Amino acid sequence: QQQQQQQRPHPSTLQQKIFILSRRGYFDNIQICKEANDFLSCWWECDISGDCLLEPYHFTRMPVAVHAKKGKKDYFFISLHTKSKSLANGKKMWQSRDPTKMLKFVKDAVKNRRRIFTECARVRKMIDEIIFKNYSNPHIIVCGDMNDGPGFDLFE
Hints:
single chain, about 160 residues, 4-stranded mixed sheet, Nocturnin, Endo/exonu/phosph_ase_sf
């Protein structure tokens, strides 16, 4: 019931769309996993800013979850494109050597990392509460652009 109350039209409905393509014939049945996608479309509370206050949050780009069957095996494909770590004028802010601009750069960079973390954590929660709860030994593939990787920025 709480999940239904928090479900609203997602802001990304007019923005980037995430797709999963499948070759016909390999899977016996492939379809959108409605329960997983409903879970992912709900807002949740988290602390993005680091001020220790929980605030409503949603994906910056709505992920998509697909359920496929091959014989008796269940496959789930979850595609997402997490929040970018990029900051407008970030390099300029950091290289300015102005302590105020450098501090803003650090705070904004950490905030974007927190967004990536919370979006990935939300997908994991959906996997635990929807997929693992309802399916025995599912095969799960999470794919897409996580906007993260070793050596990409100052914060590792």
